[in-house]
Amino acid sequence: MEPVPELERTARRAELRRALRTSQDRSGAAPALIDVSKANAALSVRQRRINRLREEEARITQQIASMVSEMRRIERWLEFCLEDAIDRTRNQHSEAWSPSPIMGYRLWWVEDGELCGVKMPWNKRTLAASCLRHGDLGEIPHSDGSCGRLGCGVYAAKTIDPLYRDFNVWSLEDFAIGLVALTGKVVEHDDGYRAAEATVVALGARLEGRVLLTNIPDMLDDVFADPSMIRMGNPVESRQQSLIEIEMYVAEEARRAEQWI
Length: 261
Ligand SMILES: [Zn+2]
Known about the structure:
The chain is α+β, with helices and mostly antiparallel strands and about 260 residues long. Helix content is about 45%, strand content about 25%.
């Protein structure tokens, strides 16, 4: 037998009640309806029970939801505690492992069609550090002094000034100064950092009397792949003027980046 849907059954019961009333009205007789009353009562008892259980069910569902949301908050607190503990341990060794990048400055000069750093040319805007002494063993950059006085890692200065001091920027004809985002393990020194990885986020570059300023990722990739792209920049009167423009641009980009971090 096919199950009769609930709505149809309700309609059928209403129909039967109406038919009974009509029949009683016609005949004037009213037989005792003990069975009907019993069934009615049994139905309403069960309906009330179901209503109570539904209320309880709603309360339980709400309690579960609020407990789940409490757990999410506790989990975030636990993550904070773990990060804080890691930070405090690392700070004892001047290390940072920050989820948001640390900003630094770098200088490259154009040589043989490449943007060259102190140790190697950069052909991409991102460079991952490797350790000449220990390879990729352990956490790079090493901070236990095992790979020399200076240690491995991608270097970056905290401000632009040390670049002028360490490199004779005034005498450089074709060069670039960039803002780099340092990620992964970062070891802090007096004037700068050593990081596991650095990505150039803004660059001011000068080539053959033209200055290109850009923070567009694709364009940065293109410039590092082929520095002759810098020639697309604007002509600049003097070397001093180009330095001022580059420094102002990179400093402004650093201020903008800090707002986001
Ligand atoms: Zn090392």
